[in-house]
């Protein structure tokens, strides 16, 4: 008898499958645009006008960082809740409705961004369809109202997904009043709670400021305020991407390694710490912003350093579990056990390589987080190197590796080709090593990010870096390898959906790792979600009330009023574009 997810939960499997395919579509388009811009700014091959660079960059950032990640993770979380509670969602119509809402939101966002490629974008609601605002979308850049509306629908869809997981858990709780929350559900619920806390900031920014401003209801906004509200959300969102990857490292890697999770209580502590600290540190993205006092930046830095702890605990617990597994399989010696790990399994190898990369990414994150060192790397290619290791590898590679396990689970079809899958995860690791290492290095020489023409006037990188040609070559080579890897991934996914139905031998059991120290060893207070949420909110209030108050005081809620007049700090986007077009031949 086969024990695949689709056999246990056929209705849920359909929604999860749809979410995965939405995610893969975003990955395909976003990934291809990544190649286009990497070749463009390294001057290796230019397909686009430099004036279109920001359209490409916005599509790349939004489709990969927001669409690909979040569609995949809502699928994974639905899987995790239903399998660990051993019950389906309360009503799959509700599940389909939040999925549909996210799709509509994505389509609106996508259409507005891609309209930027047209010579003459159509005019809707009185303004040109246009959204070259990058994935960070704060003012003074302005997008068409439909872009913001799409974002709102997407985020509200994700909120309803959270409601779905909570409802499922409440239904289970009514039937099992005395049991501990199963670990995967615990991870989903704590992540959902900090997602609610952090998205409050971005919802406020869009609904109160950006959307009315783009509709012409208000004349101006306070750019520092919308920036700060963005970053209130913008750091926590990175953990929204990371937590599903962590979840899979905790519940799948130990089993794939042949052993058990080292400690369930420690895993709970880790997720509680993320709930507490993911939001009150967003100002570490604004160390260089004038208008925020140093003291508030220092608080953000302190909280960031505290938040290294759960990742360091994760490194310890997950690697200890892998070692336990390897020793069960006969591994010996200080490091010899590494050879006993199942390196031929693409699911394992993809996730292990993603974890390895994340160890490096953690170091570049620590460097970003230091207030004084940040001055050296801020707005350079270093930061781009950092996030291609984090979201671009720790998260993306884990998701791709997991897909080799999930797609057979939710479709009942065996994976098309394991060797291609193994080659694919290796290629991702190699491509990213080239690209991200070169980006980090060039950032140290001041190579700016987010520009099609990275050279400064009167400043040549060549003598400063000595290596700009080599750096560009490495980035272009890395990007090309990543594209091949991506194509192989998509090919495998497509071919798998055409594969005949899988037998039980071809599809692994839908179960995850047991534990060496189980939930019975965890203090009951860890499961008190109300308590942790309350503390998390208090911390956010401490970290943000004073800086926000002073930003509003000095810059005005809707921008500075001088003699009763509103000073528009914000040039309209067409003027900016025309200036750019004028400068760039
Ligand atoms: Fe970051 C900028 C600080 C983590 C994403 N970050 C960014 C941006 C993105 C991003 C997208 O303080 C750019 C935003 C923009 O457009 O401007 N980041 C940190 C810190 C961490 C961190 C301290 N970032 C992430 C994660 C991301 C992400 C995760 C996405 C998923 N980041 C910053 C700062 C900036 C920043 C500043 C602003 C820079 C600027 O100036 O603009 C930490 O969370 C990192 C902690 C990680 C560790 C590593 C633990 C190691 C583990 C591996 C275990 C190994 C295994 C495998 C399992 C301490 C868990 C073993 C294998 C065997 C074979 C044995
Ligand atoms: Cu951050």
UniProtKB/TrEMBL annotation:
The keyword Transmembrane appears for this protein: yes
A GO cellular-component term linked to this record: membrane
Domain Cytochrome oxidase subunit I profile: 23-504
Keywords tagged on the record: Membrane, Transmembrane, Transmembrane helix
UniProt xrefs under SUPFAM superfamilies: Cytochrome c oxidase subunit I-like
GO molecular function ontology, one term from the record: heme binding
Protein name, UniProt field: Cytochrome c oxidase subunit I
């Amino acid at each position: 008898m086969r024990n695949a997810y689709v056999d246990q939960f056929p209705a849920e499997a359909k929604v999860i499958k749809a979410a995965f395919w939405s995610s893969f579509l975003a990955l395909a388009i976003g990934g291809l645009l990544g190649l286009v811009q990497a070749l463009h700014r390294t001057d290796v091959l230019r397909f686009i006008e430099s004036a279109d660079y920001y359209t490409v960059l916005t599509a790349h950032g939004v489709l990969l960082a927001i669409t690909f990640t979040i569609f995949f993770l809502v699928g994974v979380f639905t899987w995790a809740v239903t399998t660990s509670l051993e019950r389906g969602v309360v009503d799959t119509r509700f599940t389909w409705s939040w999925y549909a809402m996210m799709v509509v939101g994505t389509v609106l966002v996508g259409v507005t961004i891609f309209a930027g490629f047209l010579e003459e974008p159509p005019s809707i609601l009185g303004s040109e369809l246009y959204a070259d605002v990058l994935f960070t979308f704060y003012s003074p850049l302005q997008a068409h109202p439909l872009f913001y509306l799409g974002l709102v629908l997407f985020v509200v869809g994700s909120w309803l997904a959270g409601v779905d997981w909570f409802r499922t858990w409440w239904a289970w709780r009514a039937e099992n009043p005395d049991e501990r929350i199963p670990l995967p559900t615990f991870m989903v619920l704590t992540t959902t709670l900090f997602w609610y806390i952090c998205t409050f900031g971005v919802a406020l920014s869009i609904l109160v400021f950006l959307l009315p401003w783009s509709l012409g209801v208000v004349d101006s906004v306070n750019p520092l305020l919308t920036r700060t509200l963005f970053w209130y959300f913008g750091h926590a969102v990175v953990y929204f991407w990371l937590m599903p990857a962590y979840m899979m490292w905790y519940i799948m890697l130990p089993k794939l390694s042949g052993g058990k999770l080292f400690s369930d209580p420690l895993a709970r502590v880790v997720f509680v710490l993320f709930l507490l600290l993911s939001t009150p540190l967003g100002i570490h993205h604004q160390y260089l912003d004038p208008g925020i006092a140093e003291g508030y930046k220092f608080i953000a830095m302190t909280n960031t350093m505290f938040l290294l702890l759960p990742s360091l605990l994760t490194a310890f617990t997950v690697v200890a579990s892998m070692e336990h597994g390897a020793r069960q399989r006969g591994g010996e010696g200080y490091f010899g056990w590494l050879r006993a790990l199942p390196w031929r399994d693409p699911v394992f190898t993809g996730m292990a390589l993603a974890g390895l990369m994340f160890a490096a990414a953690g170091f570049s994150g620590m460097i970003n987080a230091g207030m004084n060192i940040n001055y050296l790397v801020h707005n350079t290619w270093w930061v781009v190197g950092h996030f291609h290791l984090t979201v671009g590898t720790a998260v993306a590679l884990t998701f791709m590796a997991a897909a080799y396990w999930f797609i057979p689970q939710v479709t009942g079809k065996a994976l098309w080709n394991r060797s291609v899958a193994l080659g694919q995860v290796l290629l991702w690791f190699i491509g990213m090593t080239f690209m991200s290492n070169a980006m980090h290095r060039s950032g140290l020489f001041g190579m700016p990010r987010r520009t099609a023409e990275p050279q400064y006037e009167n400043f040549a990188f060549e003598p400063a870096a000595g290596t700009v040609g080599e750096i560009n070559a490495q980035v272009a080579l890395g990007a090309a390898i990543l594209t091949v890897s991506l194509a192989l991934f998509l090919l495998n996914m497509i071919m798998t959906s055409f594969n005949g139905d899988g037998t039980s031998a071809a599809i692994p059991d839908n179960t995850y790792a047991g534990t060496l120290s189980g939930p019975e060893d965890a203090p009951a207070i860890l499961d008190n979600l109300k308590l942790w949420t309350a503390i998390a909110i208090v911390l956010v209030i401490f970290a943000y009330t004073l800086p926000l108050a002073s930003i509003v005081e000095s810059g005005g809620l809707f921008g500075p009023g001088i003699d009763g007049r509103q000073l528009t700090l914000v040039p309209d986007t067409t003027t900016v574009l025309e200036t750019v077009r004028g400068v760039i031949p």
